[in-house]
Model the fold of this input.
Amino acid sequence: MSPLEGIVRVVADSDLDGLMAAAVLKASKPEIEVHFAHPALLRSGNLDYLIDRQTAICDLPFHKDCGLYLDHHLTNRPTSEEEREFEKSGGICHWRDTPSAARAAYDLMKHDLDLSHLEGVMPIVDALDSGGISLEEFMEDGPIIRLSRSLSLSDPEHMQEVMQQFASGMQLDTILESHKSRLEELKTEREIMTDMVRERTKIIDELAICDLSETGHRSNGYLVTALAGVDAIACCVIHGYMDGSIEDVNRPALGASFYANSFRDEANPYDLSILATLLDKTGGGHANACGCRIQPSDGSNRRLIQGDKESNLEKWLETWSNRNTKMMR
Done:
């Protein structure tokens, strides 16, 4: 029986990895509808109305009510007991220790259909999601890296178009050519972001802290660590708005992302997800790449106020200062 038997919709993360995982499932079953979302939306229960045994979840936290669960994040992995109960009640769990969720989806479906048109893009998806991009590749800022930056919940039509292109069997070169003008604009934006990141980054105890909050801009860890250089073991990127909301893609909630510096010769020995889950129970991700929302400093559920961001950062830095005893993998 196909793992997509009875599946009518997919809920996937809104990055390139989530999109490619959804594209693989869409290629396997074209009538499936695809919804893109953010992990915090799923964890908060905002997507419960979409999730039942006819739903596949890709590259997002585990939800016991879905029908197919497909992911690779360590902090999202269901416990053995959760997995047993899930499968006993009819769910299919396809959590795999792969470089990307797209790779897990590809491996799941590659024997059922021809996915040869994805062979060119899959290694880059794997590398981008697992920190395998070299400094030279990143600084070159090629079209696939720019395509990954073009994906955003604030432009759902673009995300659906790109996903459908990959699902339909369109060749990679043709897809990139169809978005040529957008990708050229992103090349210019990268130059602007480089200046902004330089201005807003400071290194404290080998942690590069880039505060982009209240600017409306985001940056991945690659740009921050590329500019910080070998002086940074990892980085913390703060983004969003103090009065933002996880439901508002144009004014997102204040949050932070943690990334290992994958451009260093030495592998990162620390589990950064400890920082992402230190204050936010809905935080998580990989040991090398993860995120969370800024929390009220008094532990309550009140709205954020001035000082909460600084309080969160102080607690992360305190844990980071004890990383050799508290964060070793």
Summary: The first helix runs from residue 16 to 28.
